[in-house]
């Protein structure tokens, strides 16, 4: 499959999940217009650490294809869009199509993205428990009743998308082969972030 690439740090997409995006850069406005006129797909990827000497911004080779299922064009040409994830991919090669945005050929068979088996009850409970603890540590207001109604895949992937993990952690979650493996990793990351938050709160203020 060939699709435009949209590198965006911290923005990961999973199959059967959705990602709202505000598109304001001119090159990515053009990307959205071209995608709408074409197959309606955009390939979400994350940039790697900045390399000032690189000719182009280095990106991770694994991402997820999103189909545009919501589109609002604003008066000034910006877009609000919603992507619905279809397949994770591995980049085969980038393709020069003389567009201001990057394009690539993608291997959609690199991951088994069929609907996963549900988590075990204990693992599901652990994910919810650590999510509550992290939410409390970060001072977030969350509708936990609504969270509890999410199915296992939606719960794990939604937390992976919105939690303030760094780029490498989010990429590791994206590339996890199985849902239960992603859930285990997610629990560890939430615990680490919560403990780090508590440590930061105890640091003295330098005047």
From TrEMBL:
UniProt xrefs under SUPFAM superfamilies: PUA domain-like
Pfam families xref list: LON_substr_bdg
Domain Lon N-terminal: 3-194
Entries under PROSITE patterns matching the protein: LON_N (PS51787)
InterPro entries per the UniProt record, alphabetical: Lon_prtase_N, Lon_prtase_N_sf, PUA-like_sf
Entry-linked PANTHER family: ATP-DEPENDENT PROTEASE LA (LON) DOMAIN PROTEIN
Protein's name according to its UniProt entry: LON peptidase substrate-binding domain-containing protein
Organism (species): Sphingomonas sabuli
Lineage: Bacteria, Pseudomonadati, Pseudomonadota, Alphaproteobacteria, Sphingomonadales
């Amino acid at each position: 499959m060939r699709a435009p690439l949209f590198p965006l740090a911290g923005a990961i997409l999973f199959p059967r999940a959705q990602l709202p995006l505000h598109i304001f850069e001119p090159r990515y406005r053009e990307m959205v217009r071209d995608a709408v006129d074409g197959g309606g797909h955009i390939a979400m990827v994350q940039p790697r650490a900045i390399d000032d000497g690189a000719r182009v911004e280095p990106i991770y080779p694994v991402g997820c294809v999103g189909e545009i299922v919501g589109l609002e064009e604003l008066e000034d040409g910006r877009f609000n869009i919603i992507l619905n994830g279809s397949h994770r991919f591995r980049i085969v090669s980038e393709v020069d199509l003389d567009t201001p945005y990057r394009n690539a050929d993608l291997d959609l068979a690199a991951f088994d993205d069929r609907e996963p088996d549900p988590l075990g009850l204990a693992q599901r409970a652990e994910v919810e428990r650590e999510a509550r603890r992290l939410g409390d540590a970060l001072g977030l207001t969350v509708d936990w009743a609504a969270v509890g109604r999410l199915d296992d895949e939606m719960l794990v992937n939604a937390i992976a998308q919105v939690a303030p993990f760094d780029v490498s952690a989010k990429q590791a979650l994206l590339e996890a082969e199985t849902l239960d493996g992603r859930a285990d990793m997610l629990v560890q990351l939430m615990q680490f972030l919560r403990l780090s938050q508590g440590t930061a709160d105890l640091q003295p203020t330098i005047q």
